[in-house]
């Protein structure tokens, strides 16, 4: 079995992403020092197919995030008209046609477990694709780098600007960048709070100081984290703070696709003059383009590393260079360790997406996802819960009749008020009544989207031939909605007196 | 034992520890960790100054913000009272019937009633209100003094043999102790009462006791023994017995004429609380 990291290969230069000068600066600290200053990374803009995918996902994910709270959804009068809303005060969660009660939080649990399994499956198949393409940290950092590039130019210009002494030009560029960053951060924090309150109302009350304090606090918090994480900390969040890169090793194996530098093809590397023969040398011309574009500041030619988020930008950079040189592309590519090992032994590399690990993940995902979906679809429109009196469990009437008390809770999940006719089934001749009411039948009116609880009595006549405990049930019926709940009728003794 | 080496793959020094062939790299912490630590220290200093923090010999440092959990609890209690004021006002203005017919108000009265019952009434009548020997069962449909809302409210307000004005008083004579009847007559009466509740009894004794019952008991309990709620005289024909249904209990009751005492709650509970309590008891008993 091939090892994941080939320690026998020469390691020419580590941390080559950092320029000599930067390294010199950081060295004093790194050697013996307990704390290391951040080594700045200046990722260069790259073009290529993976970059295109990243642009597309950047636009898609951010659009979903910013636009969703503004989608309106037709619900009856008196209900929120917002498609996606976490209504804490009303204790409901609305998502288009789905409306969840707090006790249905298991749906979220199901969705979260399914999401985790999907992440496991993706990682087992394609490595840290989530990190490289869809993680909010990656997406917002990407957006922030776009802004940075707008104000300060691409890599070289940025490095020059940072090294330059303070000047008017430097000040306005830096200020403009940070203000724009803060603006985006504020927009991000602002969009977040719209998920928890009617957006058009909140946007008005927010500016005139009438919004709830939690809105301001959440907005400030999200603004701060967005600005700090995407602006200042960037790859440090992934490397030092996020637990995910440390766990992912458990999901990866030698068949997972990871961005890989094909050492056999690339080495020995070295400068190449036009017209020179490619005989006896590798394809890598040591142009370091793969290094300078890497947002994590690593050199993928050192082998797969904890920091690599599998974003494919180095693939694009190298392919671009190889294309210009007229060499076949793919010196850095999504590849598996197994394929690399196979090729090095002269065997044919096969990609194996179906493995026991991926099958487990896929089956578990299908199960959890299916179960969640099924429970969501088959969710009853109404629920009846019966809580029987425990003290006393039963009461003997003056004529020897036995009466049990119950509390009924009817949940009406529809958007219309409903009348539920309640019947009791189990003891023949038993009479249903409600305290304080003279009516012989029990009808409960439950307002739209509410729970109503009511006390009812069931009285069994003295001559009823009862065992101490008789299985029974309540049935609540409103039109085509029927819900029932099992309970027992207690009378203390098989034969009273 | 520090066997620090430079790691081949990364060029980083190792800590010198080894676990099963794995050596830990001695990477320095990022500097922002240090900053966060400094920020925490700064925060804690601010916290000492602003919040109650240091214990002293006589008290603790109060902090510039003057925060006090005790004062906050006081405020919350006040707010709670104000909040309850609303419900109390509704209970004050609504009539008992209105309270019981309005589902919302009824539910509110139930809540209030239940907690008040637990605090004040459960000692005698039991948490579930089922009573015990000598203490009335408030869950069934038997009422010595009437089971209408107003009757219940009146009983709670004035009590029974409480000495308060308007208190309900029923007087069962102690026929044996006061030597008003002979022991034999009391035995016969016991059989008569057992017979009233349709249980097998000594026919001879029943016949002997008939004129006695007519003369001594029917004034309060009625000629058929059906009781009288006006006088608080129990129905002797039903299945409910406040002081026990067996012969010994019945005989003891004729002999000693026991009667319980229930305190008057007016003055101790507010009128609206008594209303809520009445509704709670009434509805729990199925209403009358
Ligand atoms: S090494 Fe390549 S794939 Fe990995 S993070 Fe850097 S640019 Fe992305
Ligand atoms: S971009 Fe390609 S050719 Fe250039 S250094 Fe990286 S691997 Fe070598």
TrEMBL record, chain A:
For the keyword Signal, the answer is no
Chain residue ranges for the region called Disordered:
1-32
In the UniProt record, what gene is named as encoding this protein? ccoG
Keyword Electron transport assigned: yes
Q: Where is the 4Fe-4S ferredoxin-type domain?
A: 274-303
Q: Which SUPFAM superfamilies does the entry link to?
A: 4Fe-4S ferredoxins (SSF54862)
Q: What is this protein called?
A: Cytochrome c oxidase accessory protein CcoG
**What do the Gene Ontology cellular component annotations say?**
plasma membrane
Automatic annotation (TrEMBL), chain B:
User: What are the record keywords, sorted?
Assistant: Cell inner membrane, Cell membrane, Electron transport, Heme, Hydrogen ion transport, Ion transport, Iron, Membrane, Metal-binding, Oxidoreductase, Repeat, Respiratory chain, Transmembrane, Transmembrane helix, Transport
Q: Which subcellular locations apply to this protein?
A: Cell inner membrane
Q: Where is the Cytochrome c domain?
A: 108-197, 204-285
Give binding positions for heme c 1: 121, 124-125, 262
- The record's free-text note on cofactor binding: Binds 2 heme C groups per subunit.
- What's this chain's function? C-type cytochrome. Part of the cbb3-type cytochrome c oxidase complex.
Protein name per Swiss-Prot or TrEMBL? Cbb3-type cytochrome c oxidase subunit
Q: Which gene encodes it?
A: ccoP
């Amino acid at each position: 079995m091939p090892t994941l990291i080939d320690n026998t290969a020469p390691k020419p230069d580590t941390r080559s992403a950092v320029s000599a000068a930067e390294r010199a600066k950081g060295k004093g600290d790194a050697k013996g020092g307990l704390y290391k200053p951040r080594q700045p990374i200046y990722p260069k803009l790259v073009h290529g197919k993976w970059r295109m995918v990243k642009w597309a996902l950047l636009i898609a994910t951010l659009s979903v995030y910013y636009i969703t709270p503004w989608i309106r959804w037709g619900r009856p009068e008196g209900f929120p008209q917002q498609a996606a809303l976490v209504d804490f005060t009303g204790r409901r969660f609305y998502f288009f046609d789905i409306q969840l009660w707090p006790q249905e939080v298991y749906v979220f649990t199901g969705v979260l477990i399914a999401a985790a399994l999907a992440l496991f499956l993706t990682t087992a198949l394609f490595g840290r694709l989530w990190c490289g393409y869809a993680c909010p940290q990656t997406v917002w950092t990407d957006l922030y780098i776009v802004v940075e590039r707008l104000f300060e130019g691409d890599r070289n210009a940025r490095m020059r600007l940072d090294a330059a002494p303070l000047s008017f030009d430097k000040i306005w560029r830096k200020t403009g960048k940070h203000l724009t960053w803060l603006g985006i951060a504020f927009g991000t924090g602002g969009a977040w709070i719209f998920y928890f309150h009617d957006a058009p109302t909140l946007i008005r009350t927010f500016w005139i100081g009438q919004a709830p304090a939690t809105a301001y606090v959440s907005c400030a918090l999200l603004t701060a984290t967005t600005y700090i994480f995407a602006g200042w900390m960037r790859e440090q969040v992934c490397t030092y703070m996020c637990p995910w890169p440390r766990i992912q090793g458990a999901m990866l194996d030698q068949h997972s696709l990871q961005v890989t530098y094909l050492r056999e093809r690339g080495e020995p590397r070295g400068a190449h003059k036009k017209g020179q023969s490619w005989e006896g040398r590798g394809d890598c011309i040591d142009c370091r383009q793969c290094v300078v574009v890497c947002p994590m500041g690593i050199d993928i030619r050192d082998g797969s590393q904890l920091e690599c988020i599998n974003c494919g930008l180095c693939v694009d950079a190298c392919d671009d260079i190889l294309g210009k040189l007229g060499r076949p592309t793919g010196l850095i590519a999504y590849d598996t360790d197994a394929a690399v090992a196979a090729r090095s032994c002269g065997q044919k590399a096969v990609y194996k997406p179906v493995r026991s690990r991926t099958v487990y993940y896929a089956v578990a995902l299908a199960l959890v996802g299916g179960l969640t979906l099924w429970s969501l679809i088959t969710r009853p429109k109404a629920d009846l819960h019966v809580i029987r009196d425990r003290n006393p469990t039963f009461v003997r009437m003056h004529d020897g009749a036995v009466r049990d008390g119950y509390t009924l809770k009817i949940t009406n999940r529809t958007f219309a008020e409903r009348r539920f006719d309640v019947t009791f089934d189990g003891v023949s001749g038993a009479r249903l009544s409600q305290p304080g009411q003279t009516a012989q039948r029990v009808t409960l009116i439950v307002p739209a989207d509410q729970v109503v609880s009511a006390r009812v009595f069931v009285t069994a006549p003295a001559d009823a031939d009862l065992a101490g405990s008789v299985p029974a049930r309540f049935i609540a019926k409103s039109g085509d909605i029927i819900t029932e709940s099992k309970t027992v009728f207690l009378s203390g003794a098989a034969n009273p007196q | 034992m520090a066997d620090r080496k430079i790691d081949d793959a990364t060029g980083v020094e190792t800590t010198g520890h080894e676990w099963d062939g794995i050596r830990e790299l001695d990477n320095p912490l990022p500097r922002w960790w240090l900053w966060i630590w400094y920020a925490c220290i700064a925060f804690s200093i601010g916290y000492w100054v602003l919040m109650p923090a240091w214990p002293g010999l006589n008290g603790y440092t109060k902090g510039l913000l003057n925060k006090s959990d005790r004062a906050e609890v006081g405020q919350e209690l006040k707010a709670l009272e104000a909040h309850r004021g609303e419900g109390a006002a509704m209970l004050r203005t609504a009539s008992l019937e209105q309270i019981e017919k309005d589902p919302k108000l009824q539910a509110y009265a139930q809540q209030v009633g239940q907690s008040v019952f637990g605090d004040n009434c459960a000692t005698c009548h039991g948490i579930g209100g089922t009573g015990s020997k000598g203490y009335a069962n408030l869950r069934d449909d038997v009422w010595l003094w009437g089971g209408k809302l107003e009757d219940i409210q009146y009983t709670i307000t004035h009590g029974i043999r409480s000495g308060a004005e308007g208190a309900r008083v029923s007087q069962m004579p102690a026929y044996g102790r006061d030597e008003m009847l002979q022991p034999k007559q009391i035995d016969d009466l016991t059989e008569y009462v057992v017979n009233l509740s349709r249980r097998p009894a000594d026919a001879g004794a029943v016949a002997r006791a008939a004129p006695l019952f007519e003369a001594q008991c029917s004034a309060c309990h009625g000629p058929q023994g059906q009781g009288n709620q006006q006088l608080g005289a129990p129905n002797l024909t039903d299945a409910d017995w406040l002081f026990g249904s067996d012969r010994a209990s019945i005989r003891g009751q004729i002999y000693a004429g026991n009667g319980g005492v229930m305190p008057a709650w007016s003055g101790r509970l507010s009128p609206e609380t008594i209303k809520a309590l009445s509704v709670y008891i009434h509805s729990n008993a199925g209403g009358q």
